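#struct-queue
[09:14] JT: dropping the first one here, sequence first, then the structure tokens:
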Amino acid sequence: MTPSDTSPTSGDGEPAWAGWSDEQLLDLRLCDLRLDLKRSQVREQIDRLHGELAAHRLVFRPHCWLSSEWFSPDGVPGIAIPFYLAHPRLAKLELNQMLEVEGGTPESCMRILRHEAGHAIENAYRLRRRRDRRQLFGKSSTSYPKFYTPKPYSKSFVLHLDMWYAQSHPDEDFAETFAVWLNPDSMWRERYADWPALKKLEYVDGVMGDLAGKPPLVRSRLQVDPLPRLRKTLRDHYRDKRLRYGLEHPTFYDRDLRRLFTDAPEAANNKSAATFLAQVRKEVCRKVAGWTGEYRYTIDRVLEDMIRRCRELNLRLASPEEQAKMDFAVLLTVQTMNYLHSGRHRVAL
């Protein structure tokens, strides 16, 4: 069966592609997925977001649509949600292709939705034009950097998404602050009581109090890059996504990785090194952090580079898993220290 000769659904109401292999799915165009956000598994989280906004007497509700990734376009009071969250088969493909599913659990999905809602509400009420907002968070016109260097000790920014994301740009700082404020379980007054970031949270609290019951100034329902208009195949989508989000892979890892793993034909049925490292990622990071005293974030950045390189080289296990895990932990320790000494402690945007 090929993408060109399938019907939208199978006999049990599931999409015809739900039972396809990854290779078959990758040749399908995004627009041919024919997904319905209203019937998707992410609908529950969208309703939950609306409930949290209602709890603060905010009448604004961001409109949502399916696209290729998470984003809230400039000037649009809405949120694009990645297609893979609309069906478990697509979430599995995302995991296989990217080694993670961003927003793949209800709680992680809510974290991102709250963040994107922060961008959307700024668009809805044109908050970026306010002088006090610019003075406290910075100018939206500030160019997004290609990289940013996090300051893990800083208490001037809230902690919400990973990688100290609030530090990357003034607009992200506002969105992260809004997300913490909106979360009914954040206990932000207590959590940030002695942080300079508390001033930002109190500002958001005051502004949202002023907006309670007021309709948005911008009511556009524009959808940017909606799924039905995306004619790229899933294969091309994931190729481009890996290029876009991948850092430049240092080839100086290659020699050590080839010593530990193998690409020999006789090992073709062995577990892939990338899959193995993804499985032991948390355990190894914890171990190396204990040995080195370095932040797990820093260690994880190095490990991420090495996982990607293993995938590119198509490396597979060459020794028992326990031995491979210990040997790799030693290798990661060495490479983490090299990473720190080379001054590459930066996050790619």
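[09:21] JT: and here's the second one, same format:
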Amino acid sequence: MNWNVGKVKITKIVELETVGSTRFILPLATNEEMQKLPWLIPHFATEEGRLKMSIHSLLVETPSRRIIVDTGLGNDKKGRKVPTWNDRKDPFLDRLTAAGFAPDSIDTVLCTHLHVDHVGWNTKLVDGKWVPTFPGARYVFGKIEYEYWRDHSHEEADKLAVFNDSVKPIADAGRADLVASDARLADEITLIPTPGHSPGHMSIHITSDGHEALLTGDVAHHPCQMAHLDWSSTADSTPQQSTATRRELFSRFADTPTLVIGGHFNAGHIKREGTAFKFIALG
């Protein structure tokens, strides 16, 4: 699945797709409430109202950069709260390479935030040691986000495991670039501070030849949160802030024909036009 935004190309590579079993993350998104949002069906929910979601990476190609945005769960990891996220043996890197994005062709890894399902493929296990998966890349972390987890991850065992196997090895290897949450990374790419889901969460604004895209990360786990801005995820560090961030971010782009591509949106993208929402089919 891919999109063209002027001279920028965005390609999605999926690691894991799910249908249902999402109430633990979005408790207000009941089947009945989903059926009240027919624009979600069938691409983002089933006829019965079960949510469709995915864990994936977005490959962003600009005239000067080759970027992977968020890196999923990864293989061989331990200490995850979700049992099936431990000791994975997924051919994600093979799919990435088959799509034309061999790890050594990536020059930038950009993490919207440092949660478990966005940093896993930052590293891979080689001879018992965690090493950078993308050998020629600089890893871009938000400074606020990185420093928060550096100082607080020890407070929860699962957070510490994620930091130690998927983030700290990058810093120890001298491959991490800590940036401001509103940094400009290229002519076409600017970061937007979008805290609430995590302390230093960032979204990505892409502009090229008069076209725009917004990669929201986990500002919204599912498009239903674009209609219900007050529906916070159970994983949000500050639910009140996450609600305010959604309201501000989506209002900012309400009058602009912007592609909205979420960190867990499983299909296509959403176009918001004022208070209306529309699924844009691809191909």
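[09:30] RK: nice, looked through the second one.
[09:31] RK: The chain has six helices and 16 strands.
[09:31] JT: good to know. Residues 279-283 have pLDDT under 50 and may be disordered.
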